[in-house]
Amino acid sequence: MNNVAGEVSRGRSTGRWLLLLVLALFIDRAILLSEFGFAYVGSDDLTFWQGATDYAQGVFREPYFYGQNYNFMLEALVAVPLLWCGVPHHIALPVATTLLALFPFLFFACMLHREGRTQEAALALLVPIALPLQYGMLTTVSRGFVSGLFFSGFLIIPLLRPRGRWSFVVLAAATSLGVLCNPNSLVASLPVVFYVWLKNVRDTRYYIIMVLGAIATWYTQDLARTFYAERPDHNVHTMLELRFWIGDVRDGFAHLDRFFSHLMPVVWPLGWLVVVALPAIGVALWKRDRAASIALFVGFAFVLLAMGVNKVNDDAGVLLHSSVRMYLALPLLLVIGMHWWAAGLRPVLPNWERWSLVLAGLLLVVKMDVAGPVVREGIRMKEHSPIAVKHYKALEWDCKQLGDTLQKYDADILVLLPYWAKGVPQMEYLDYGCPIIDERFPGTLMNVYERRTWVYQSEPRAIHRTILLHGASPDLDTLRYYPDLSALRIDDRTVLVRNERFRTGFILRLLGVELKRNAYQE
What we know:
The chain is an alpha/beta fold and 522 residues long.
């Protein structure tokens, strides 16, 4: 009886320590949200703002990220309840993304604690706390980076119960949905698939269920891709045709930080050590759990070979558009490897609860001290970068200034014309962001790379009484021949066109403004 009471007491005690680690994890993310998530907005994030706005109103326009034939907007869907509660977009979307990114570690810890594996549960919570701020930034931006990672959280179920029909169902669903949302989840799911297979080589149910999951993934993806194949006018940015070149793998070994920086806990400057840690754990497992060892080596081989895929090398040389985003599941794979290694071992560290909390506390102190400089370095963009990053207050200011002009001249539509000083990423803030945060904005249209197909199709056909053009200077001379049109130059970058009867598209052509969805299609 006393033994039972002692076990219950110890369970409650470790549960309290784990709750303190959960609190530390949320404090860690609160630091990031305060310094980065709530403070800065990426130009690509604005498409998720639009998607969340539409979903909140029950409008589903396209299967993927607007204007491209890949990348589901799961973060936008998760943000909908927050929008219903009145939370602004610049808070709701980072919160939704953060919850998706943290879920795997929290769910792993919860399930491991239920199994009485409290040290492993603590490791699952410590790893995300011990990761550098740059990893947190990549898993805070709403850009589809973490959607596949979310589903990888359910891998803990087949890990704990590798045999049985329901474990196979969970494994198939977690793997399939993860790949469907973002194939970067394969970094974590592929080794688990191999592990469960090695434990069930002769169980035909495993093969049937996994094949059904793969077929469901292929069919769903084919349906989504067919939408764009049948509507090529919806496609602004097409998914790269995936190619593999072994030469890129060879070159990758000379630049490991390009792929693996910011992915190693504690020793932040040495992110590439994560690819040393994985085979090291595999070697340690070889005699005790051959299946886990082989699975880790398979995962390690996949991680290295992925460096030869052209999409993985899609890198703009800046943190928020780096190849690291393709390996965001590596820390979770590290947790999986440590779970395999720790399984069956007796506790070897006395007072591990206190030591884990001390480590978490020290890491939080360091992060609070360096958060500002790290964030400022992380948001730096190169010239002609495919994305831009702007402080939310700056976005509000820009919207207010342009909104005042729109209101003063009672403009019916704002047409944005990217130019040398403000390219497409900078103009996207005014095009997608301002109508959401400033109710004075009428319809907006960007003459190139406009992602909102419904806008691109309808606005050029509409007749607007007053059209405000902002950006590149249009040619106004041709308007002299049309008495129903007149122009007022407000400043060097802003022109107001008054119109009596012509469609917007016709007027833009008169002004020498070309309407283009992308670089290869008008």
